Inverse folding.
């Protein structure tokens, strides 16, 4: 007679081999989980880029002002 | 009226070519509309290239024969057209359908503004880009004028004469914009369609590597937002044509399944690419490795059976479409690849790597041209921020999946980058311009990576941010080189109806002396023979309709020079006065561009030929004033005359331009500011302030009203002082901040001792 199991919940379920059809394809798996590092790398590079060009935006906005003034007002 | 007729002829010619291309494309066996449309683009270029080459070699490159050939091809195409298919892939609603999100619409809206502005500038403003004025457009003009492919005399630029030997396939394509008008009226829009063609190729590439349709739209958007691409769309350079052909060829060779039509289109695209720009050969070699490995992944041991026909097709196309240019240069110059220099440049290569680091230029920052994005600098943030991580991700995924082709594809843009970092020794700021043909691969990888990242929304926000940044910093530079204020000033004149000459609305490198000379020759009635020496920007000297002939005389003996003038019936001369026989100062020549023009026979011209180089860089800043509020400023022959005039004209000062009269008797000193070029790297300086003392002893600060008007100078800057002393000149300079600790300028003072007539010297 088999001994009763004290805590059935702790008993590991028998391992079942997943059939090849059930295995997610590597790409699908990556899609589902998604990678984080390309985004963070992109963000870090964006910060570095902005630092290298930190004076560019104000200068460009100045240029826009001048350009619109020339095209609209002729000045 | 002439312009209206020109436009009618332009529409007829281009409609015929496009009709022929579209009808032929309707027979292509592709399922996707985008592939068919890309095929149509490649066919259009193939038709134009083949017709241009045939007519150019037979000496019949004129509007009539060109139109007849295109109408005949269009008629042939109509017989075989599948009209329903054609209308389907040309339906603009297809484009509307693939745009998925408001963010994409917003980005496309910004790009629509940018490219509409580029087109507007193409119609109202003059050609401006240094390279196109130097040799691209002179070749276009020469082909149009001669009705044939020729090797014109272009003079020595940057110590070299090889410019005339560059393959001219692109210049044949540009005849579609030139021959209908008989002028270069809209020639600066020659590359405009190729920006969109490259974007389409980017979209197709993205789909091929496995991107979703909506994500592939992002790839195309990012490509169109590259500031270099935006800026080049208003130039007659050749980088976008090359990018289009290269990316299209790569796309058709990576298609699965591979079709005969696809291979044929790719074969043309890659076969014609070296005739557009010689560096295409490097790209084709890199692309060939990718294609070979992709086919190996697909077919393993049977890959050779696929690759051999591809190689044969590309090889045959190379012979057909590029062979002529190589053969010509071999026969004329003894080298098929002339003027390509395949020798490594170890010293300068190392200096680039040491000075800039291997990856620093990826950040798109050049101390030589800080804060300047133009047609050769400024790839925008998207390549480094989005393209580079995406390529790494795509390469890593390919590696995990044992797809060598994918790995090679991911490596391609990096390989191109490294090659150009090593090769471009003296102008690293233009490095990313040469990487543009590989950028479609990077953006395709970005489209591929989008569904595979966790924070997709963040990535899309970043992509949109890149587009906005590129739009804000790139668009105001459109149609200009380093000085956007010059074009803005011209546009203001145009708006007020005060622009009287073509050259009033022109960006940047149009120094005032050049403008005066161009206007002079442009308005000079009749056809003239002009003797020129070392003119860096000769194209506009030909006149709008290319009627004048330039003769570049290299005589150093005055008597023989005069004899040559008379023998060739030359009635005008244009002289750049900063001539240096050793070639050392020709870089300055390019910048200084001292130019005078006068009827031949003027004895002062005779004199000017014999001034020593250091003495004849006669930048004359003659300054007299009655006070800062209403100053009378006389700017003489000034190297940066146009940029000087801008801030002066904007203030209360009145500007008068005085021609250089060749008299150096009053010259006391010259100030020559030479940036230290350590490690041969280029460096930039910013003029912080500039003050000039007027005749009454008053100091007047020249306002730096225009950012970039005179603050970014790449080359040695020379100010010559006439009838004055250096102490009347206050010039404060600062390095570009980043390099402050490493670089500094040094100020040299040269004494000028003009030789007088009574000393026995010519001057």
């Amino acid at each position: 007679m088999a001994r009763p199991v004290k805590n059935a919940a702790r008993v590991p379920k028998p391992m079942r081999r997943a059939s090849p059809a059930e295995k997610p394809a590597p790409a699908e798996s990556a899609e589902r989980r998604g990678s984080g590092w390309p985004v963070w790398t992109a963000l870090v590079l964006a910060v570095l880029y902005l630092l290298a060009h930190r004076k560019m935006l104000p200068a460009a906005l100045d240029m826009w002002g001048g350009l619109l003034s020339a095209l609209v007002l002729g000045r | 009226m002439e312009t209206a007729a020109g436009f009618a002829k332009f529409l007829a010619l281009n409609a015929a070519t496009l009709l022929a291309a579209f009808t032929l494309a309707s027979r292509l066996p592709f399922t996707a509309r985008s592939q068919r449309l890309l095929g149509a683009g490649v066919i259009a270029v193939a038709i134009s290239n083949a017709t241009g080459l045939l007519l150019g070699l037979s000496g019949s490159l004129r509007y009539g024969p060109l139109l007849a050939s295109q109408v005949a091809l269009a008629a042939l195409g109509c017989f075989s057209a599948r009209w329903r298919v054609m209308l389907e892939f040309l339906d603009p609603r297809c484009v509307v359908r693939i745009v998925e999100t408001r963010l994409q619409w917003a980005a496309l809206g910004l790009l629509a503004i940018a490219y509409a502005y580029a087109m507007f500038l193409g119609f109202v403003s003059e050609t401006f880009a240094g390279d196109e004025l130097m040799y691209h457009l002179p070749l276009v003009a020469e082909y149009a004028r001669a009705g044939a492919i020729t090797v014109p005399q272009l003079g020595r630029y940057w110590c070299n004469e090889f410019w005339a030997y560059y393959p001219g396939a692109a210049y044949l394509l540009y005849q579609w914009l030139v021959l209908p008008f008989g002028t270069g009226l809209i020639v600066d829009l020659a590359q405009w369609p190729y920006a969109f063609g490259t974007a389409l190729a980017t979209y197709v590439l993205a789909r091929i590597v496995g991107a979703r349709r909506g994500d592939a739209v992002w790839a195309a958007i990012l490509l169109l937002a590259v500031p270099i691409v935006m800026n080049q769309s208003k130039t007659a350079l050749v980088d976008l044509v090359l990018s289009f052909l290269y990316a299209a060829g790569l796309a058709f060779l990576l298609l699965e399944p591979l079709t005969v039509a696809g291979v044929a289109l790719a074969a043309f695209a890659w076969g014609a690419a070296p005739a557009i720009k010689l560096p295409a050969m490097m790209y084709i070699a890199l692309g060939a490795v990718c294609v070979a490995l992709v086919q190996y992944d697909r077919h393993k041991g049977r890959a050779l059976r696929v690759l051999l026909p591809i190689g044969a097709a590309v090889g045959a196309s190379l012979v057909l479409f590029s062979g002529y240019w190589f053969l010509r240069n071999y026969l004329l110059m003894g080298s098929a690849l002339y003027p390509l220099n395949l020798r490594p440049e170890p010293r300068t290569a190392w200096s680039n790597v040491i000075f800039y680091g291997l990856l620093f230029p990826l950040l798109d920052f050049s101390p030589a041209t800080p804060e300047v994005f133009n047609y050769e600098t400024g790839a925008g943030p998207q390549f480094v921020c989005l393209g580079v991580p995406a390529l790494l991700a795509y390469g890593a995924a390919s590696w995990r999946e044992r797809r060598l082709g994918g790995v090679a594809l991911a490596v391609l843009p990096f390989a191109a980058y490294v090659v150009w970092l090593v090769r471009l020794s003296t102008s690293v700021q233009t490095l990313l311009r040469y990487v543009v043909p590989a950028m479609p691969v990077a953006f395709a990888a970005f489209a591929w990576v989008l569904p595979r990242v966790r924070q997709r929304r963040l990535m899309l926000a970043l992509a949109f941010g890149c587009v906005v940044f590129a739009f804000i910093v790139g668009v105001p530079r459109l149609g200009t080189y380093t000085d956007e204020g010059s074009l803005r000033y011209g546009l203001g004149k145009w708006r007020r109806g005060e622009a009287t000459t073509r050259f009033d609305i022109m960006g940047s490198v149009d120094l005032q002396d050049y403008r005066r000379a161009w206007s002079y020759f442009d308005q000079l009635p009749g056809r003239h023979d002009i003797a020129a020496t070392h003119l860096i920007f000769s194209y506009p000297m030909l006149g709008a309709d290319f009627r004048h002939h330039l003769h570049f005389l290299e005589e150093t003996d005055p008597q023989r020079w005069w004899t040559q003038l008379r023998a060739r019936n030359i009635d005008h001369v244009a002289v750049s006065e900063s001539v240096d026989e050793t070639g050392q100062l020709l870089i300055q020549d390019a910048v200084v561009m001292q130019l005078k023009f006068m009827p031949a026979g003027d004895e002062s011209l005779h004199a000017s030929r014999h001034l020593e180089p250091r003495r004849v860089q006669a930048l004359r800043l003659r300054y007299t004033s009655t006070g800062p509020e209403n100053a009378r400023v006389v700017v003489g022959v000034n190297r940066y005359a146009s940029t000087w005039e801008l801030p002066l004209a904007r203030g209360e000062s009145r500007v008068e331009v005085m021609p250089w009269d060749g008299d150096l008797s009053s010259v006391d000193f010259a100030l020559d500011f030479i940036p230290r070029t350590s490690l041969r790297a280029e460096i930039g300086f910013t003029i912080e302030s500039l003050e000039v003392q007027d005749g009454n002893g008053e100091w007047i600060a020249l306002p730096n009203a225009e950012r970039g008007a005179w603050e970014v100078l790449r080359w040695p800057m020379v100010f010559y002082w006439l009838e004055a002393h250096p102490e009347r000149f206050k010039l404060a300079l600062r390095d570009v901040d980043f390099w402050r600790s490493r670089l500094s300028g040094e100020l040299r003072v040269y004494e000028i001792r003009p030789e007088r007539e009574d000393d026995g010297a010519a001057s």
User: Anything to note?
Assistant: Chain A has three helices and no strands. Helices of chain A lie at 26-33, 37-52, 56-73. Chain A touches chain B at residues 26-27, 30-31, 33-39, 41-43, 45-46, 48-50, 52-53, 55-57, 59-64, 66-67, 69-75 (CB under 8 Å).
